[in-house]
Specification:
This protein is of the alpha+beta class. It has a domain of 201 residues: Lipoprotein localisation LolA/LolB/LppX (outer membrane lipoprotein receptor (LolB), chain A, Clam), CATH 2.50.20. The chain is 17% helix and 25% strand. It has four helices and eleven strands. Strands 6-5-4-3-2-1-11-10-9-8-7 form an eleven-stranded antiparallel β-sheet, covered by helices on one side. It is globular.
Length: 305
């Protein structure tokens, strides 16, 4: 404000100060605080009613969207892949018991006689020798040339052998032919199969990774020991052994087998094992004897020379 000049012809110029924030004394239609003066520093500031309504509406819409999203998309939980159903406790116990008996059978050394009844009903006595050094020999009457020749299979430190024994279909003295290394498989055309329950199938029965289903079984009449039904699973396209029933005594002695090969049943008391097995005859350079009869002998009018 400019001080009066004292000249009556010049009007005084007065300036009004701008109202401070919150000062409502000079706004028309509005009243200041009682008694005049400035509004208190902590007086509430009221939002515009329309703006408040807009803000409330926006919050309501946002809350509705969030609730809908939670209802439509429940939280997903990342979990590990579901493991396959465990085998029944009874099957596991049977597997454990059979594996233990088969392991004992692999360490069992003895001499015994078994009765073999083939699928055709024919019966013969099979001699089994499991020596202390791990070698073995199994004599199979009628095991070659369609049942007319007797043979012996043996595995020693020198290899795997088939020996022809004197018999109706082969009257010559016993001689042996080397088939391969000690742990090689007997070729199918020569295989009488009765040796498997005492040799390589025992290793299969001790391996829990083999796709087999094991369950307890009742012993057949006259058979002693514990028996088990052995079956394959759907994952086994080429079973490593014949399915069937396998029986063992507590010390691992095999007492009975029922499988595709027929039946094998312990027929004599178990005797002591030798230190090693002896071949039935000298090793010669010749052809082994086939399991089946020669084609000319099977044809009408055929015979053996």
């Amino acid at each position: 404000m400019i001080p009066p000049s004292g000249d009556p012809s010049r009007p005084e110029l007065r300036f009004r100060p701008l109202p401070l924030a919150g000062d409502t004394r000079d706004e028309p239609g509005r009243r200041g605080p009682p008694g005049g003066g400035r509004a208190a520093q902590n007086d509430p500031v009221h939002a515009h009613p329309r703006a408040a309504r807009r803000l409330t509406g926006a919050l309501s819409v946002l809350l509705s969207v969030l609730l809908a999203a939670c209802a439509a998309d429940p939280p997903t939980t990342v979990t590990a892949s579901t493991p396959p159903d465990p085998a029944p406790a009874g099957a596991d116990a049977a597997w454990d018991e059979l594996a233990a008996l088969a392991a004992a059978a692999r360490d069992r050394h003895f001499t015994a006689r078994y009765t073999h009844v083939g699928a055709d009903g024919s019966a013969r006595d099979v001699t089994v020798v499991s020596a202390e050094d791990g070698s073995w020999r199994i004599d199979v009457p009628g095991g070659a040339l369609g049942g007319t020749a007797d043979v012996s299979l043996a595995a020693t430190s020198d290899g795997l052998f088939q020996c022809g024994l004197p018999s109706a279909g082969r009257p010559e003295a016993a001689t042996c032919v080397r088939l391969g290394a000690r742990d090689d498989a007997v070729p199918d055309r020569l295989d009488p199969r009765v040796q498997h329950p005492f040799t390589d199938w025992l290793a299969v029965l001790t391996d829990r990774r083999t796709p087999l289903v094991i369950s307890p079984a009742s012993p057949p009449d006259g058979v002693v020991g514990r028996c088990f039904t052995v079956d394959t699973t759907s994952a086994s396209l080429n079973p490593p052994l014949d399915v069937g029933v396998y029986c063992f005594e507590a010390d691992g002695t095999p007492t009975h087998v029922r499988a595709a090969l027929g039946t094998l049943t312990l027929a004599s008391p178990v005797g002591p094992a030798p230190a090693t097995v002896a071949l039935a005859g000298p090793v010669v350079d010749a052809e082994p004897l086939d399991r089946d009869a020669p084609a000319d002998a099977a044809s009408p009018g055929g015979g053996t020379s």
